Amino acid sequence: MAFELAVTSVNLSGDQGGLGISRFHWNSVAGNPIAQADCNAANAAIRQMYQSNNNFWPQDITLVVQPVVQILEADTGRLDRLMTAVASPNTVGGAGTGNYSVGIGARINWKSPFVIGRRFARSNTMMIPLVASSFQTNGLLASGTVSGLNSAAATLITALTAVGLQLVVWHRPKGDPPAGGVTAGIGVGTVPATPSGLRSRRT
Asked: Residue ranges of the chain with pLDDT lower than 70?
């Protein structure tokens, strides 16, 4: 049986730097086929991760958890089907006030205890942009920002685990025809105090 991999996308708009997208890969811990209830639960948990820290996001920013979830075959990357989550609402509006810099914010480092290709599997989610009050006067992220985002990451992992799901790092398949795709369950998400930035090829 081919193991399934689900992909939930979160679209960001309102930033002067342009549109943004984050993708969360997840699957069943037991290797079961992805069900409608799984999509509902995963999308709701992902939205809550953003909603719980919406005071860090500028009011200009809107994040939308896309209801359409892609179901892939993990080994080959083949798109098997699309499923639509019915969890509502799916939008998060930024509530932070004050100035902010385009392309500057935080990064959640997702870490797995499993090794793929002689290295521990790793991934990250950029939480960008964040309002000025999310930072200290020395330029580092404020302790409240770090703790808030760390808590949100842990809550996401716990919420998925409670319904038999897990965030994963996906090592993409290679070759023609493609094969060898592997998933590794994520055990923890941590946020460093050092800010992260995004670059544009146009600047």
From this structure: 1-2, 87-88, 200-203
Position 202 in a domain: no
Cα-Cα-Cα-Cα torsion 131, 137, 194, 90, nearest 10 degrees, comes to -20
- Residue 108 forms part of a structural domain: yes
Asked whether the beta carbons of 44 and 69 are under 8 A apart, the reply is: no
Phi, psi of 155 (to 5 degrees): -65, -40
Which residue, among 28, 22, 29, 20, has the nearest Cα to 8 in the 3D structure?
22
Residue 193 is given by DSSP the state S
Give burial (CB, 10 Å; 0-12/13-18/19+) of 194.
exposed
Domain that holds residue 44: 4-197
pTM equals 0.93
Does any domain span residue 203?
A: no
The confidence score (pLDDT) of residue 1 equals: 45
Please name which of 102, 89, 157 lies closest in space to residue 131, comparing C-alpha atoms: 102
Q: How many domains does the chain contain in total?
A: 1
Query: How distant, in Å, are the alpha carbons of 53, 107, 145 from that of 22?
Result: 16, 12, 20
d(CA 69, CA 8): 5
- d(Cα 170, Cα 189) in Å, to the nearest integer? 16
143 assigned to some structural domain: yes
